[in-house]
Amino acid sequence: MFDKVLTYSFVQRNKNVREITGKTHLHVDIFKFFLSSHTSRRKYIVEVKRYADHLYTIDFYAKVSSVNKYRLKTNQNVGGKLGATVLDIIAKVLIDDEEACFGILAAALLEEESQDSTKRFQLYSRVLRRKANLLSSRNVFAVPAISCIFVLPNVSALDTNWCEAIINRYEEIFRETS
Q: 148-153 and 138-143: which strand pairing?
């Protein structure tokens, strides 16, 4: 599971105009791919946002017209292919930027009432820990209370003050995006 990477393509890079958006990211790289099941073919979007100091976030979702696009289940039963493709995009960023750190906010499903240790958080943190070798020997830290996962460089992860500062910065980033 999580071994079959689908063909994806880079769509574009959107530079952030902070004066207009009020957001702190530097740019967003957008990728797309298609997932097919026996009953449907659906387009997926992956957005990799870069922030100052080598901080990144990644968002992925099925292309749907819904304000809850991050919380929906597609019922395609192709989570392994989806996960492998997103992991491959993360790995490419980590190869390009050796100091890269990722912060991932695992959205609650529509039927979940709390953001505390969501089902997606439990799955994503387990998979990221197992696939750490794909992530260029990174440390994976999970914060169940807010369903956040952090992928940090091994060397930097030894410094607890640095880790705490990074996690605090990501909390600001996640507040900005929600």
A: antiparallel
